[in-house]
Fold this sequence. Notes:
Layout: H1 8-15, H2 26-29, E1 33-41, H3 45-56, E2 61-69
Amino acid sequence: MQQIGLSKTERARNVQGAFRVPPEGKAAVKGRRLILVDDVLTSGATSDACARALLRAGAANVDVLVFARVVDTLRAPI
Length: 78
């Protein structure tokens, strides 16, 4: 799924439902505190979709570790 050139809303829509934990993997996730590693955070849509899938599968908590962040030069970073 290519995200290049999409707005934040379009990116979120593009990855909606794209990630899931298969039934056989749910036992490994249930009740665990997990770290999700992402190389580059642009809008956060992919990390958000992945974290939501892990939480729906029963993860107790999902933290995201990001190595780089794309900053819009027209806005101050949050």
